[in-house]
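2024-03-11 09:14:02 INFO worker-7 job=invfold-0412 stage=load source=structure_tokens
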């Protein structure tokens, strides 16, 4: 942990009383076209009315265990978990714009999330010392020839492990940096306010603790998470997250300031703990999910799924419902984002040791999705 936060987290702790273990199971059978989905709710409300408007096409192929896609202006950037490389997409090819030093890929750890703010690229990775860290680089050069300036530490000391490292980072509409962390296979720490694991953290772009966080001096925004790998905001500021459960339920949550989401005492919805923990707005069998990156386009949440090998489209206004797209068509999908032209870019993840790699994997697929 950075010196600026170490003492503050421990002081704040006294004030506050993710991937499935079976994620490498056999691939599901393919299905053609969108399918209705309502999680476990059985809701009769209308699901997301979305459908592909064109045939998905490759943007680039030949990626090695890619994890995150972001845009720096018009330049798409990709992280590769195991190589530690950050790639810039230029036309139908990629170029290495830089490598993150001290990345220690092992299991699910390595170079994970990316986020861009102004002239800086923020990076989440598992280090040689065994912790997870956030650093930033000033971007140099111009589109097509971007590079990385000197590295600056933003936050360190996030517990790491072979699995459950979280790793998604994104800037919220408030300008703060949100960081998802996993329980790093130490379940009780998800409920420990003094630990950075099993949390969603919120810090300033420079790594300080905002004055309006739930607990003075602590970067914790919410707790009780197993392994959050997707965070996004709707137009009204509502924050959503996707979370890996263990064997029973994966989750879509609405994140509230200071909220406790129950892990490890609760997985999915729990009547027993209704008065203590916040229930997910939708939950799925891990066979159909293992959700990772998410994005929001218009009034629809798009969720990338690994074991479920699909994109799930969920209406912001009815988050207990949804529709499944591209089931089994591309294999595991790690991330999804909205490109500058409004299309969806899907990042496959079949070369990470758990997928069934196909010729040319991994790749970015581009597709236009229309609502009606």
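2024-03-11 09:14:09 INFO worker-7 stage=emit residues=372
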């Amino acid at each position: 942990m950075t010196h600026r936060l170490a003492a503050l987290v421990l002081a704040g702790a006294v004030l506050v009383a993710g991937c499935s273990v079976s994620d490498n199971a056999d691939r599901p059978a393919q299905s053609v076209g969108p399918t209705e989905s309502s999680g476990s709710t059985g809701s009769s409300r209308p699901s997301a009315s979305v459908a592909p408007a064109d045939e998905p096409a490759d943007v680039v192929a030949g990626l090695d265990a890619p994890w995150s896609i972001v845009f720096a202006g018009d330049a798409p950037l990709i992280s590769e978990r195991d190589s530690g490389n950050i790639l810039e997409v230029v036309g139908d090819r990629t170029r290495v714009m830089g490598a993150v030093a001290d990345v220690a890929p092992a299991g699910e750890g390595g170079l994970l999330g990316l986020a861009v703010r102004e002239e800086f690229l923020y990076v989440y990775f598992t280090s040689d010392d065994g912790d997870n860290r956030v650093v930033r680089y000033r971007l140099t050069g111009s589109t097509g020839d971007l590079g990385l300036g000197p590295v600056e530490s933003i936050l360190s000391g996030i517990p790491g492990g072979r699995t459950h490292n979280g790793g998604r980072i994104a800037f919220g509409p408030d300008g703060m940096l949100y960081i998802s962390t996993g329980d790093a296979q130490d379940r009780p720490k998800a409920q420990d306010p003094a630990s950075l694991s099993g949390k969603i953290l919120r810090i300033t772009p420079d790594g300080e603790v905002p004055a309006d966080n739930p607990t003075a001096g602590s970067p914790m925004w919410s707790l009780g998470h197993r392994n959050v790998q997707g965070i996004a905001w709707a137009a009204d500021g509502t924050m959503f997250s996707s979370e890996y459960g263990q064997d029973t339920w994966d989750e879509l949550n609405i994140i509230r300031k200071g909220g406790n989401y129950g892990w490890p005492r609760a997985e999915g919805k729990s009547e027993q703990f209704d008065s203590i923990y916040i229930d997910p707005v939708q939950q799925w069998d891990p066979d159909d999910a293992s959700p990772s990156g998410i994005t929001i386009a218009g009034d629809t949440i798009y969720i990338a799924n690994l074991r479920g090998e699909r994109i799930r489209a969920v209406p912001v206004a009815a988050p207990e419902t949804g529709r499944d797209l591209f089931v089994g068509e591309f294999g595991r999908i790690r991330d999804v984002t909205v490109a500058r032209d409004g299309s969806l870019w899907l990042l496959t993840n079949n070369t990470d040791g758990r997928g069934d790699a196909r010729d040319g994997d991994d790749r970015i697929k581009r597709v236009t999705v229309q609502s009606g």
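2024-03-11 09:14:09 INFO worker-7 stage=report msg="Residues 6-33, 41-46 have pLDDT under 50 and may be disordered."
2024-03-11 09:14:10 INFO worker-7 job finished
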